[in-house]
Amino acid sequence: MPVRSYIIRYSFMKEKKIVQFLQNQLGEAEKLEVLNWIESTSENQKTFNELKNAWILGDTFGYERGAKQDDTKYIVKHHLHTTMMILIFKYAAIGLMLISIGALLYSQGHKLSQLSHQINEYVVPNGQTANIILCDGTTVYLNSGSVLKYSGSYAIKERELFLEGEAFFDVVSNKNKPFIVRTAQFDVRATGTSFNIQAYPNSDISDVTLVSGTLTVETIKDLYPIVLSSGENASLNRNTNEIKLSKVEQNQYISWKEGIVTFRNARLEDIAMMLERTYNVKILFSNEKTRNLRYNGTMLRYKPIDQILNIIELTSDIKFNIETRANEPNLITIK
Hints:
The chain has eight helices and 18 strands. By secondary structure, it is α+β, with helices and mostly antiparallel strands. Helix 3 (28-40) packs across helix 4 (42-60) and helix 4 packs across helix 5 (71-117). The longest helix has 47 residues, at 71-117. The protein is rod-shaped. The termini are far apart.
C-alpha cells in the first residue's frame, strides 16, 4: 500500500524537476516552483520526504548515477526497491518476533501441559506417618497406610487432591480457590479450615470430622452437599451408602497425629485394621465371632504392640498368638 500511494502522488510533479531539485541542478525560478509544490499539501511534503530518503539511501549504499542512466527512472526504481526492502525486513522482523513469541508460548504451554499431567504422590507405609506442607502453605498430616495424590498444577488452577487412607488438613484460606479432597466415597470442599478425613479402601466406614471453619461433603447419592460445623462428624457406611451426621469429641478423631489413638465402642475388627497399619503387622481371626467384640480405650501408638495386645486380653476372653517372620510383617492370630 505505501508503494502504490507513492506512485499516485508522484505523478503530480514533473519527474525530471524533482530529480534535478534533489541534485541541485535547477535555477531559482524552478526551485521556487518545486518548493511551492512541496508546501502546497501535506501529501506533497510526505512524497518529497520519501523521495529524498530514497535518494539519500542510494548514496549511502553506493549506487551510481551516471549520465547515461535515466535519473527519474532510477529514483523511482530505487525508491520502490528500497521501500520493498524496508518492508521485507520489517515484516521479516515481525515474523521472527511472532515465531519467537509463538515458540515461547508453545514452550510455556507445553511445560504447563506437562505440569498439569504430572502427578505427585505421597505414599506412607504401614508403621509410619508423614507431615507435608503444600506449595500454598496448607499442612497435611498423613497417617499410616495412606496415599495422597495431586497434579503438578495444584494451586495454579485449583487446589484438588486425592486421598486413600487418613489425613488431617490445616488449610490456608483462599476463597478464589476452594480446597477439594476427593475420596472413593465422597468429596470434601473447603476454603480455609481444619478437618480430618478417614477413607481407607478396606474399611466399611469412612468419615470426615471438622475441627474449625466450615466445609461441605458431597456424595454421589446426595443431590445437595452436607454442610458441617465445628465439632461435627459425617460418617458414611460403604455398604448401605447412608450418612450419619453427629456431634463428636474431636480429639477422638485427630489425636492420632499426636501419637495417641482413642477408640470408643469400636469393633475388634476395626481395631485390628488400625493395629495392622500402625505396627505393620498382619492380623488373622481364627474365630469369626470375635470380630464384632467392642472396646473403649486409649493407647500410645508407639508402645510395643505386645503391650497393647496384653491389655486387650485382660479385658476379654480372647488370646493373641504372635509369629515372627523375617521377610514379611509379623503374623498375629486372634483366638
